[in-house]
Amino acid sequence: MNGENLEQNVENLYTRNNTLQAKRGSIYDINGNPIAVDATTYKMVAVLTDEWSTPNRPIHIKEPDKVAAVLSEHVSMSEEELYDRLTKENSQVEFGSAGNNLTFETKSAIEEALEEENLTGITFEEKKSRLYPNGTFASHTVGLAQQNNEEENEITGVLGIEKEFNDSLSGENGWRRYQRDRFGYVLPDMGVEEVLPVNGNDIHLTLDRRMQIFLESIIDEVNAEHKPANLTATLMHAKTGEIVATSQRPTFNATTKEGIEQSWQNLLVEFTYEPGSTLKVITLASAIQEGIFRPYDYFKSGQIQIAGETVRDVNPRGWGNITYLEGLARSSNVAFVKLVEEMGHDTWKEYLDDFGFGEPTGISLPNEMAGSNPYQWPIQRLNTSFGQGLTVTPIQMLRAFSAIANDGKVVDPHLVKSISNPDTGEVKNFEQKETQTLISEETADKTLEYLKETVYSDEGNARGYQIEGHEIVAKTGTAQFVNPETGTYHRGGTNYIYSVVGMAPADDPELIFYITMQQPELNGLGHASQVIQKIFNPVMKRALEYFSTDEEVNLNEEESETLENTVQSRTSDIISQFEEKNREYSVIGSGDTIVQQFPAADTEINDSYRILLLTNGAMTLPDLTGWSRSDVLRLADLTGIEVEFEGEGYVTDQSVLPESFIETGSTVSVKLTPPNDPLNE
């Protein structure tokens, strides 16, 4: 009638099509600890108007005083605040952070309490979210999944592993179709058609949660004190290519999203730079393989004229006539140029290609860069001998170093250990690819032996990287980089990219640790290498102890345990339990019942975690002294307060006194001080 299909209109009026959401797969570390998991949260809404109600089916607030009294027992708002909300001249109201991101336990408790009192008007909107219980944790590498603007309640990976494996993690949604009456009830004798969803796969990474958390904590302190423009640090198993821990600065907190605007670039695979003298490890191995590295032959150090250009050592006056072994220890550019001259440009180019420079590694991360090796002009070719005139990524350098640590065979760095189907139990393991032999085992052994000179000889420029109780090899690097405004190299001060590669144990390395740092502030130190040592030395020492075969040493100082669910438990009971277990916790609010917690239940925790417990009733501000920036941001996320930061480091002062009442939207200023500042001791 009038061009309309009335039968279809009736069908549309009474037919409901629902999407059955697939559960997004979880991401775990190598020991099964959760890194990223799906979470269903709920937003509480109060219906204040009666226009959608019927006499027999009221759905609005009829007794705001009684409803406020019930709600105050389950959310972090006072009875007076709730009553004010419930009596506004609106059709419906929300409750800010106090009524948002509620757990299923809190939602169910509210519904049950309202039903007992025969109270109406409170509804809940279900929301899918992605939970990252570790906060700042290899954030650019693990990645981020968030609400898809085009698909309601759909989570999509937008960064890192979450993006690279989005299809596998997402699964496939199902659907349900049925007939209903005007109140939404299913019509009798009408069948329900449905296709069940296929849940996403779980991904198990090679990252080790304990080492990752330790690395993040060390980098946090160094970053706060020395403020480099960027920084990368990656620890890898030398024999398998499994990445144990990796981090960068700038980074972001995946829980609060704090810092995400600083950079979306994953420096591990997207940062290209001239590597500097750490590439001499590869030059040395190639020269040994060609039989031209004669450690006790002499050469004149300082500078050399090549192809009309001058190549200089870091000390242009040189150290006189020295052996090539001393030239390695002192990182003489002249020594390595002479080696490439003797080796031949074409031969050296073959080695660079074989070691993978100019080609992506194929690691399972989006947007991997290939680097570049133009190798056009004579001086450009020679400069590659000491890491200038070509660009690399950190992951390429790790792949190349693996050949030295692995008897001459290169292994591909990788992050994914396996993919499993949680419903069927089917597991797909990512086996190590067959390795390519680039140099002989004898060459690899000699390279390691000679590299000890940089750490243990009197002339070695890596002496500060010695690890007590362990013998290691290491090579430092200092590289220029181009000023985009002038098109020329930065010069002077700390306008360089500093780096170090370390392998340990020295005679048969199990671990490779590679760090890069651009333009740090020295703050009284003599050289940027001393800044890098603040990361390298404690992390490598911890890793060597952690992966030791000695069972007693293998126990990490921070024993982990699973955090139980505290929501809807009595506050006093949980405090007593936590006191007995010597857990670090803070209570927000003076209520007698826990309504929210961080981290979530079933999260693996250790002494590095600060547990936040949000109670019912009015919110109160804890004593923030000693809290990290991340801790304060988690508090802000739970309570909805605004935080203004001054400085870097840990909290030493706060504008609102501890135990003062706070409200969503109120502002608290905190002062942060670096950990080694006298104010923080």
Automatic annotation (TrEMBL):
The keyword Membrane applies. This is Penicillin-binding protein. Its main location: membrane. Pfam families: PASTA, PBP_dimer, Transpeptidase. Keywords: Membrane. SMART domains: PASTA. It is a single-pass membrane protein. The keyword Membrane applies. The lineage of its organism: Bacteria, Bacillati, Bacillota, Bacilli, Lactobacillales. SUPFAM superfamilies: beta-lactamase/transpeptidase-like (SSF56601), Penicillin binding protein dimerisation domain (SSF56519), Penicillin-binding protein 2x (pbp-2x), c-terminal domain (SSF54184). It is found in: Cell membrane.
